Amino acid sequence: MRYxxxxxxxxxxxxxxxxxxxxxxxxxxxxxxxxxRMSKDEIAALAGLPYEEAAFRIxxxxxxxxxxxxxxxxxxxxxxxQIGHAARAPLxxxxxxxxxxxxxxxxxxxxxxxxxQLIGQLFQAALERSGQRITIVGATSGxxxxxxxxxxxxxxxxxxMILYPHGRVSEVQRRQMTTPTEANVHALAVDxxxxxxxxxxxxxxxxxxxxxxIGLTAVNSINWGRVLAQVVYFFTSAVALGAPHRPVSxxxxxxxxxxxxxxxxxxxxxLPIERLVVATNRNDILHRTLTEGDYRKEGVAPTxxxxxxxxxxxNFERALWDAYGRDGAAVAQLMEELKGQGGFAVSQGAIxxxxxxxxxxxxxxxxxxxxxxxxxxxxxxxICPHTAVGVHVAQPFLGPxxxxxxxxxxxxxxxxxxEQAMGQRPPLPLRMADLYDRPERVTRxxxxxxxxxxxxxxxxxxx
Length: 463
Ligand SMILES: Cc1ncc(COP(=O)(O)O)c(C=O)c1O
Ligand SMILES: N[C@@H](CCOP(=O)(O)O)C(=O)O
Known about the structure:
Blueprint: E1 2-5, E2 13-14, H1 15-21, E3 30-32, H2 40-44, H3 51-63, H4 69-80, E4 91-95, E5 98-102, H5 112-130, E6 134-139, H6 143-152, E7 158-165, H7 171-178, E8 185-190, H8 194-206, H9 208-214, E9 216-217, H10 224-240, E10 248-253, H11 258-268, E11 273-280, H12 285-292, E12 294-296, H13 316-323, H14 328-341, E13 343-345, H15 348-357, E14 359-362, H16 365-379, H17 385-394, E15 403-407, H18 415-422, E16 443-445, H19 449-462
Helix pairs in contact: 3-4, 3-10, 4-5, 5-6, 5-10, 6-7, 10-11, 13-15, 16-17, 16-18
Bound molecules: pyridoxal-5'-phosphate and ligand LJ64HWYM.
EC number: 4.2.3.1
Family: Belongs to the threonine synthase family.
GO biological process, one term: threonine biosynthetic process
């Protein structure tokens, strides 16, 4: 399997090289040259399999040429042993036609663990072969950072630098990033928003000398490996609800567009998905784009679902590449307009193609709180504010096929919002009960590219 850049000007690479490279040299994102399809029988045969076996069958064609079957199976088994639920991604029923897919049973209590635990294993295997030393720089609005730290902490030949927006993540999220003691992980609190952190990361990739000097790579959903691992639970949950014999819809709380794009890939591979619903909080660039046909940045507003406080959605570039008929030059032009003019109009043809794939909705802060309160009152389930955005947005799209809303984080990561909605603070799992007592280690950095680069240089030099 070969991977090409969405901007069409970087060399095509195999899976392991695309994964270790992160962002393509032309600034684009890697995407598979051609998608493998699963037949109806192959999808039906996933029913009842352990999550690991289903993951192997779904992802195997994507890693061909980089990992042999025995090695890939072993890496998957090691990765998912870290998810603390026998089903890995269990379904919970909220209403006759509405289900939650719980993706928060991993070590850091968010869906990011599903992909990060796996790419942690894949990176280790690939680095052992190549003997390379790398520096992972990650931008996070709260969850990717801790998941990356958890997956890479203590590994030889890997430094991990996590940029998060100072004061804009929950206290639990911050402590998950600032309390690990391993010398190879560093939390950098940046003055700015998540968008500033992600833009700085992309600028670092554009600086070839810096990139090569530190062996820069990315584990955000910039990295195709992250998107790939997220494809699996769309299949397993849909099959549990009757696919391929009956279609299923999904509502996905969305920020950087990685998770919902994984759903679109599952559908392109043959999974019968009726609707893919993009659910945004009031940082609603994706909802505005799908309704108005104009992708335009606005300032990022802080919300009670902070992990989705994103206005420049990295993976939307992959969806644009598909919508513009895989025309790398057209995508490169749009990205120039985004950088220079703060946005672009999506062409008629492309917006039609996007609307064929995705529908969307938005939840206000009040609607999010009400969804937490109502879900608890009606079902006894306590949901996090990101999941609540999904539950609210899903309502007009319920029926006639089952709707699965992705429960993307554990409510205990956002106790203030949950308490505001329903008057109770959800407790952290026992293994994290002392999180508030652990000492924190963090470096405050100005939201300025040169300041960030020198902080990163300093930390890699000290390693
Ligand atoms: C808890 C939570 N829910 C939803 C999202 C949105 O996921 P994505 O960025 O893949 O759209 C994120 C992060 O972005 C998150 O951390
Ligand atoms: N919500 C994310 C934002 C980054 O998303 P990613 O999927 O591109 O890593 C976070 O929690 O950091």
